[in-house]
Model the fold of this input.
Amino acid sequence: MKGETENGKHNKQVEKLRKRYEQKRELYRLLKEYASDIMESENFRSTRNYIQHGTMPVRRHCIDVARQSIAISKLLGITCNERELVRGALLHDYFLYDWHDKTRENYQKLHGFYHPGIALKNASREYNLTPREKDIIKKHMWPLTVVPPLCREAWLVTTADKYCSILETLKLRKGAGRTRERIRVSG
Ligand SMILES: [Fe+2]
Ligand SMILES: [Fe+2]
Done:
């Protein structure tokens, strides 16, 4: 009896790992198909040097938000434009600075309020953004940024962003290795 229960537990765990693996495989397929230009760009790569929450680098946070946005759309059966969803999610925190660094010249306490606008400005400079992608970036902090999202893709990203941010803040999802230490050492 006990053996059966343990077997059941083991199978559930294997199933969970299999699902996560499939989800990641699908994500990397979508990233390659729709966003290889962003993934390979110098500026997007540089976001791995900035911490989002806890020990999580911004780059990985954005990739996680893309993955969770897709997962939520599938779970709830919400049809959407996957290309815009993925690109918008990758660029939603494209503010390109360390928001924890109080010595930064343009440091201000209201990062949460201002960074969607900064991310949008940076992303618009480098990419030809669609109206949906702009809405995703601009509204991802809703309800902090009062005006609600106008499209499904933006609703998905703002939901996924909150989910990922909570896990990171509670340290239930951590960056690989000692990212924070590495960043501190390298200045
Ligand atoms: Fe953000
Ligand atoms: Fe975010």
